[in-house]
Specification:
With about 250 residues, this protein is α/β, with parallel strands linked by helices. The protein is about 40% helix and about 10% strand. The structure holds zinc ion.
């Protein structure tokens, strides 16, 4: 069910006390190469939410999209609207807290944009403090191994995102304008204004020209399957695996 489509009466009758899981698409308004729409980061999470809603129509509510994000590195490109990181954090926090206040024990941010990860992590902490469980899905990171079975690389407006946008809103994609960026950042994170021309040449990181609708459909299908499993794991509390001392215990969260 969609939060915005309900009346206050239908919400009181069907959501309060009955539904405890909300999905919030989170996007950005920013340049995506020269070929993808400015709203790409909202369109993809919204498409994933539609698929999850179809799987669990009586179990999940879809909240209105948080359409503005934090896009410092692309702020100078025509059409980009970048909010400060602290404003996105505050906005997402207050929305998350109020969703929790309406009985949402599982507050799931389905994020489409890397610049939102820091602010959303802060919002998740606020949600946790009011007693709910917050989940953050960054589809292109969390399911990267699966995605790399379909495409050769992942990156902003690159082969993966271009493919998915061709599957979601082909009418808005202008492949004839696609340009590839020959530069790749090394693994160490470096940020400075004088590096942006290389880091985000043509507002892209990678080669979008290899994108195709078929690859996008394949990515959406595998991400959808992963998300369905993840939601079932969240509801069943299957969020940890025991290592039994067989690993070295290293994680990405040092
Ligand atoms: Zn994007």
């Amino acid at each position: 069910m969609y939060w915005q489509e309900m009346t206050t009466k239908t919400f009181a009758d069907h959501a309060v006390g009955h539904m405890d899981t909300v999905l919030i698409p989170v996007g950005s308004v920013q340049a995506h190469g020269l070929h993808l729409p400015l709203g790409s980061d909202s369109y993809v999470p919204e498409a994933l939410c539609r698929r999850l809603e179809a799987h669990f129509p009586d179990r999940v509510l879809i909240a209105p999209t948080l359409a503005y994000g934090h896009s410092w590195g692309l702020a100078r490109w025509p059409g980009t609207i970048s909010l400060s990181s602290r404003l996105v954090a505050a906005y997402a926090s207050e929305v998350g807290e109020q969703l929790a206040g309406w009985g949402m024990r599982h507050v799931v941010f389905i994020n489409g944009h890397g610049g939102n990860i820091g602010p959303l992590t802060e919002a998740m902490e606020r949600v946790a403090e009011v007693g709910s469980r917050a989940v953050l899905i960054n589809w292109w990171i969390d399911f990267r191994d699966d995605i790399l079975q379909v495409v050769t690389e992942t990156g902003h407006a690159s082969e993966d995102e271009t493919s998915v946008m061709l599957a979601v809103r082909q009418d808005l994609v202008r492949m004839g304008d696609a340009e590839s960026n020959p530069y790749r950042l090394r693994r160490v994170l470096v940020i400075s204004e004088d590096l942006l021309d290389k880091a985000m040449r043509h507002a892209v990181a990678g080669n979008p020209k290899r994108g195709s609708r078929e690859k996008g459909e394949a990515i959406l299908k595998t991400v959808e399957q992963r998300l369905v499993q993840l939601m079932e794991d969240v509801w069943a509390d299957r969020l940890f695996e025991e290592t039994r001392g067989t690993t070295d215990g290293s994680t990405e969260n040092h």
